[in-house]
Structure formats: C-alpha cells, structure tokens
Amino acid sequence: VSAKECISENMIISNIAPHSITDTGGLFVAVNDEELNYQDKLEGGLKGAGIPYHEVPVEDILKEEPNLNPSIKSAIWVPDKVMYAHDLIFSVALTAFTNGARFFPFREVKSFNKDGSSVTGVKVFNKLKNREEEIDADLFVNAAGPWSANVAKMAGIDVEIMPTAGAMGVSDVQLVNHIINRMRLPSDGDIIIPYARNVTITGTTVTLIDDPDNFSVQEEELQLLLDEGSMMVPKLKELGFKRHYASIRPLLKGEGAKGGRDASRTFDIFDHEKDGIHGFITVSGGKFTTSRLMAEKTSDLVAEKLGVKEKSRTATTKLIGTNMSEDPEVIAKASGLDYAFVKRLLGTIGTVDEERFNPALLMLLSYAFAEVR
User: What is the spatial distance between Cα 142 and Cα 119, in angstroms, rounded to a whole number?
Assistant: First the structure.
C-alpha cells in the first residue's frame, strides 16, 4: 500500500514542485547470491505496486556508477528521485500563505481548553517572545509526528505510535549518481543517496525510542552504516562520514509490529469523535514522500466537518518556488518585505549560485510570512 502511495506522490510532487526534486533514478543491486535470490520477489512487488522497473546489465551500470562494487550480480532500475526537504516545506508554506493560511511557528503546545467533550482552544508557549498564548479554533489537527501521542494525551486521548529514530551518515563527496538500494528486505544500511554534488548520505538504522527530545546516535550505528554501505560502494569505508544526523519516524503501532522494520509505512487519520472527544483529529504514520497525500485526506475530513464542500486541490496546485522570479511584487506585498530587497533576492535564480541559495531564500521568505516578528 505504501509503495503504491509513494509512486503516485512521486509523480504529483515532481509536477507541482520540480524545484524540490532531482530525478536521479534508483537502483536495487544484489551484492551476493542471497540478494540475487530476492530479485524475483522484488520484481513481483514492483509489478504489484505499479512501479516501472527494468533490469540493467551490470557492465552498463558500472560505467555509469564507477564507485559501485564491481562484483555486484544484478541491478534493477526504479524511478527513485531525491527530494529536498527544506525546498519543499518552505514552498508549501509560501504557497499556503498566499492562499490564506497563517503560521504560528515556535509555539510549544502545553495544554488544551475544553468545553465539555469538545476541544475549543490550545495553550502554547511562544519561544520567540518568551510568553504564553492561547489560540481558539473550531477544529484542531494533531500532526505532531513523533510527538503526536504526547499532544493527543494533553487532550485526553490515547494514540499508539512507535517513535523510531533513523541515523544517517554524511560523506562530503558525491559517490553515486543514482539512489542505490540493497536488493533485500528493508534493513539497516541499505541505501546510499546522492543528495547534492558534494554530498552522499548513507542510511539508515531503526531504533525504537521513548522520548523524541532525548536520544542520540550511537557509534555502533554509524559503524554499521559504514560496513553495510561499503558493500555497495567500497570507497565509502575509506572516506567515512564527515557528520551524521537522525530523523524520527512516527510509525503506527499496528498488530504484530514489534519493531520499526515490521511496522507499516502507511498512515492513518483518527477522528477522535469515536473516542468521545469533539473538535480534534490526529494524523500519524506515513512518510515524507506521502505527506501531501496525508494532508489532502486530513483536510478533506476537516472540510467535511466544517461544512466546506470543496475538496483539496494540492495535487494540481503549482508551488511557489517554480516561478518565484516572475512575481516579486506578489511576494513583497504578501510578506511585508521591501520590494527592491525581494527582487534582488530573486535575482539569484538562474545564476550559478541558485542551487545553494534557494533553500535559504525560501526559508527567509516563509519566516517573513509567518507571524514571528
């Protein structure tokens, strides 16, 4: 199910936000006979999910990927793409703002106000202004990721998720041109990503954690990533990691799921009216690739509850970021920034520094839009 969602969203995001995507293509490679024996199962899964694929002769792949292990036994091409998180997130924020959304970032949820069984308001702490605030609304959506169980508990609701940390190592050289995956069941150290011209990311581990605010990447995790990743790209062992980081997945705690690897990557939307609480919805699970779909399904439910007859249009709405150089006046007016300043910022688009500048530009403009001043 998750694979079908991902291939559909792959196509949608590539259309609405091409500036946040690099179409590298991906390869599943078998580095030993055991992985080669998995190929039939992999191809069956790809076919069942409607994902295009084809086998590529090893000799051809080694010409395109000279750093790959020369003893690989098979390679399957898939339509993987690299998605740049900050570019996409801030483009979404800018586009949402110009369509009427308002943002209140840097607010930590402290508690909810209730009128009987209905949630009517939220108390937050504004970390920029160092003060407490209250926000009233007709309906609240809890989309707090790995913190969603904590937030739901403040409203008197139990939501079961498995916060799962995934460590990644970063090398300061681009070692591959495609996204490289091991041809096996998902496991630690099975993916290498060409994130930028001078960056390679090797991932990822799965560690169940208790507190999303209190965990650290262990040395043995990084060593495992190096050992496993170097089986695909031997040079990785020699280079090592210049830095590392981790992200936390808010995986759903389904039946039979004992650890992060056997948990579903699908998502679910919880209408807490079934729990006797009105005006409160939780969405959790999923992947960054399917975040737009999660938002669509959630906002359609919100619209239905609020009596709004329109459906989500995000599948076809082009995000700001694809044509920013054409509308500095619109951006200046909406953000409150000086027109000449905005025009100068947008002037970097199309220059040799565009790649490096775009995330910072999008971040600056989206914070200007947000009510943080």
Answer: 12
